[in-house]
Specification:
Distance between the termini: 42 Å
Largest sheet: 8 strands, parallel
Shape: globular
CATH architecture: Alpha-Beta Barrel
Structural class: alpha/beta
Strand content: 5-15%
Radius of gyration: 19 Å
Bound molecules: S-adenosylmethionine, iron/sulfur cluster
Order of helices and strands: HHHEEHEHEHEHHEEHEHEHHEHHEH
CATH class: Alpha Beta
Number of helices: 15
Number of domains: 1
Length: about 350
Amino acid sequence: MSKKIEQILLQDQFSKDDIIRLLQSKDDEEKALFVKSSEIKLENIGKNVHFRGLVEFSNICKKDCLYCGIRAGNPKVDRYDIADDQILKAAKFAHEHNYGSMVLQGGERSDSAFVDRITNLLKEIKKLSNNELGITISIGEQSEETYKKWFDAGAHRYLLRVESSNPKLYSKIHPDNDEHSHQTRLKCLKSLQDIGYQTGTGVMIGLPFQTYEDLANDILFMKEFDIDMVGMGPFIEHDQTPLYEHKDGLMNLNDRFRLTLRMIAVLRIIMKDINIASATALQAIDPLGREKALKIGANIIMPNITPTQERANYLLYQNKPCIDEGADDCTNCMEARINMADGEIGYGQWGDSKHFKNRQ
Ligand code: SAM
Ligand code: SF4
């Protein structure tokens, strides 16, 4: 007979089977899981929710991930690359509105002109904010040298999702070539840690072929890798991608949403002091999705401060929220939402991962 959820929640250590059991919990069991994860969040992280002003600066990408709407092989995407002065303007907005931090995210490119451009942008952002704005970057796999260059220029956190810790599943959702290797992804995560970044990873939840055991292994991977921050969200199919052909075998969107909440809750219980982002994709399924995630374990939210005219072209998945709002609307809406989730915005603070500080 399987263990009772209440019994598992009293433990300090969790086996893979315990994690699977928690991930499969429903109704009252799910409620007990969420009560526990909220308590752990409050005890270890407190009520503070930290902002990361998100600039999706370009949808130009050399990769062909089979799930992603802006993959290189999608001819229907209107490609954009926001001019440097617009990126700096968004950074200034984040600084002036006391966001504390920003995220520069975009499609993967690694030619030397691009690397130098990002290096300069990072330096400029540090300058315009008197070193007050913390910077996370998320521009995919790069050489160790590039990661180091960007770190020296002022970025101190990097988000690179492992997408799945299972190499077999990874190979089913990526093209079969050296450009899309699971080994390289792991090597990149290791380089980021060695350089001294607060290192973030994450997975998509509800992918075709994914099992509960895969997800339990993902959580154990994050723990084993001693990751500092996690951003994970539901997989949402996009009809201009190869993975769309598997749409009929997917869990329904609401189940993917609930499972994502349970993943966040279990991760919070197992990694008490890391930063966990409440992913935008949650809001694509449930208008209050991000607030629900904050309540049960997440502590980071990424208001979109990308210039509005480009937002509609960064469609990783369909029904992406907030593509027609300006940065000011986004902040106001965010404030109300965080209050609703009984959180307090950590204005003006970097909101670094406590886990990172604790492991130094
Ligand atoms: N290009 C960089 C990279 O891949 O790390 C950063 C941008 S990429 C668009 C950010 C994340 O979007 C990916 O790590 C992936 O998990 C997520 N993503 C892409 N397509 C998605 C989809 N259809 N549903 C949910 N998340 C998706
Ligand atoms: Fe490019 Fe990132 Fe999308 Fe992959 S997930 S195609 S690397 S933008």
